[in-house]
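testing teh design pipeline on a random one, pls ignore if ur not involved
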C-alpha cells in the first residue's frame, strides 16, 4: 500500500510505504579525515513528514454572521391576562413529530428517585442550571397536575411535539386551571408560577424543553397520570425533585430531611390501626411535601376509606416545599378539606387557623372573579345580539 506524501510534487512518484528500500548514500573516510561535506539535499519525496509551515500573512477567518434577535413587543403582565400577547422570539416552528419513549417504571418509588435525579442533572447541565430551582420543580409539578388522566401516550406525544411557545403557554394554562378549581392550593403554588410571568422567558425555552423531555422520558405521566388516585400516590415526585436539586448546604441550613417512604408507611399503620371516624383531622406541623400524608392516604384506601372524608392540615417553613405539598394534595386526591400553611410552627402556633381564614377568603375572591367574568361575557353577548338586531332592522 502506498503512503501519501503531503510535500511531494504533483509529478513525482509516490513514496514507498517503508524507507528500508531507499538508497543509502555511502561515504569514504581518508586519513587524515577531510572536512565532512554537507550532505546533499534529498529529494522532496524522501523528506520525513513535517508540519506545514503557517503562511506569513494568514488570511483572517470571516466572522460568523450575527444571530438575529427578535424582541417581544409585549410580555404578559399576569398569569391570567387574556388575551395573552404573543412572543415572536419564541414562536419556533413545530418540530418534526417525535416520540419520547418512557423508560421502564418498575418500583414507583425507585422511579420517583430516578426522575428527580435526572431532572436535576438535566437542569444543571442546561444554560439556566444552578440558581433557579423553582423552574424545574414547576415543570415537574405542572406535568403532575396535567388535568387529562388515563391517556399517557397521547399526552406525551402532544407535549413533546409542541413548539416552545405552546409549551410555555401550556404550563400557564395548567396552573391557571388549577387555580380556578382550587384557589386555596393554587395560591400556595405561587413560588412555582412566578417564572411564567417574568420577562425574557424565551431565554429559558431551551432549558424548559430539555427538562420537560427528561421528565417525560423518566415516566412522570406514568407515575401521576392514572385516573385512580391510589396509583398516583405511589410516590412523591415533588419530594424527590426538590431534594435532588437542593444542595447539601441548603438542606443543612433549612434542616430539611424528608422522611423515607418506608418509614412513613410504618408510622401510618401504627398511628391509625383502625378506620377513623369521618371528619377527623390529621395534622402535620413540619410536613415538607407531605410524605406522611401520602402514606396515610394509601393506608386509608387499603382500609376502604376515602381520604376526601377527612381534614388534612400541614405546616411547612420553606415556600417551595409547601408549594410541592399543594401539588401533591391534588395529585394524591386528598379531597376538598386541605389546609396548607407556610410559616414557622414554633413562632406561629395559630398557623392552621390563619390557613383556614385565608382559604375562605381565596374561595370568595375566586367566586367574585368568576362572577365578574360571567357578567362581562353576558354583556358582550347582549351587545352582539343588539348589534345583530339593529343591522337586521336597517336592512
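output:
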Amino acid at each position: 500500500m502506498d503512503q501519501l506524501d503531503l510535500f511531494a510534487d504533483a509529478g513525482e512518484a509516490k513514496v514507498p510505504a517503508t524507507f528500508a528500500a531507499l538508497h543509502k548514500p555511502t561515504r569514504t573516510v581518508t586519513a587524515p579525515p577531510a572536512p565532512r561535506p554537507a550532505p546533499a539535499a534529498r529529494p522532496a519525496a524522501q523528506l520525513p513528514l513535517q508540519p506545514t509551515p503557517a503562511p506569513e500573512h494568514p488570511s483572517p477567518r470571516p466572522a460568523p454572521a450575527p444571530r438575529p434577535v427578535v424582541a417581544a413587543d409585549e410580555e404578559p403582565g399576569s398569569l391570567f391576562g387574556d388575551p395573552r400577547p404573543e412572543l415572536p422570539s419564541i414562536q419556533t416552528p413545530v418540530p418534526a413529530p417525535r416520540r419520547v419513549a418512557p423508560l421502564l417504571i418498575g418500583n414507583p418509588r425507585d422511579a420517583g428517585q430516578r426522575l428527580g435525579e435526572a431532572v436535576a442533572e438535566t437542569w444543571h447541565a442546561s444554560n439556566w442550571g444552578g440558581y433557579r430551582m423553582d423552574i424545574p420543580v414547576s415543570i415537574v409539578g405542572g406535568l403532575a397536575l396535567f388535568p387529562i388522566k388515563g391517556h399517557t401516550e397521547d399526552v406525551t406525544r402532544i407535549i413533546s411535539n409542541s413548539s416552545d411557545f405552546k409549551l410555555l403557554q401550556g404550563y400557564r394554562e395548567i396552573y391557571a386551571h388549577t387555580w380556578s378549581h382550587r384557589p386555596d392550593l393554587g395560591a400556595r403554588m405561587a413560588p412555582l408560577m412566578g417564572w411564567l410571568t417574568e420577562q425574557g422567558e424565551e431565554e429559558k425555552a431551551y432549558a424548559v424543553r430539555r427538562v420537560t423531555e427528561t421528565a417525560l422520558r423518566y415516566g412522570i405521566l406514568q407515575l401521576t397520570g392514572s385516573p385512580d388516585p391510589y396509583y398516583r400516590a405511589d410516590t412523591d415526585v415533588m419530594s424527590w425533585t426538590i431534594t435532588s436539586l437542593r444542595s447539601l448546604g441548603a438542606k443543612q441550613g433549612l434542616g430539611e430531611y424528608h422522611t423515607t417512604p418506608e418509614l412513613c408507611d410504618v408510622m401510618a399503620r401504627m398511628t391509625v390501626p383502625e378506620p377513623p371516624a369521618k371528619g377527623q383531622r390529621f395534622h402535620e406541623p413540619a410536613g415538607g411535601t407531605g410524605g406522611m400524608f401520602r402514606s396515610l392516604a394509601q393506608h386509608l384506601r387499603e382500609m376502604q376509606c376515602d381520604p376526601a372524608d377527612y381534614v388534612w392540615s400541614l405546616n411547612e417553613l420553606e415556600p417551595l416545599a409547601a408549594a410541592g405539598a399543594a401539588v401533591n394534595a391534588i395529585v394524591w386526591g386528598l379531597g376538598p378539606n386541605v389546609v396548607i400553611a407556610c410559616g414557622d410552627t414554633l413562632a406561629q402556633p395559630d398557623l392552621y387557623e390563619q390557613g383556614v381564614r385565608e382559604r375562605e377568603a381565596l374561595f370568595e375572591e375566586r367566586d367574585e372573579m368568576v362572577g365578574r367574568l360571567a357578567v362581562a361575557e353576558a354583556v358582550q353577548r347582549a351587545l352582539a345580539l343588539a348589534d345583530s338586531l339593529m343591522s337586521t332592522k336597517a336592512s
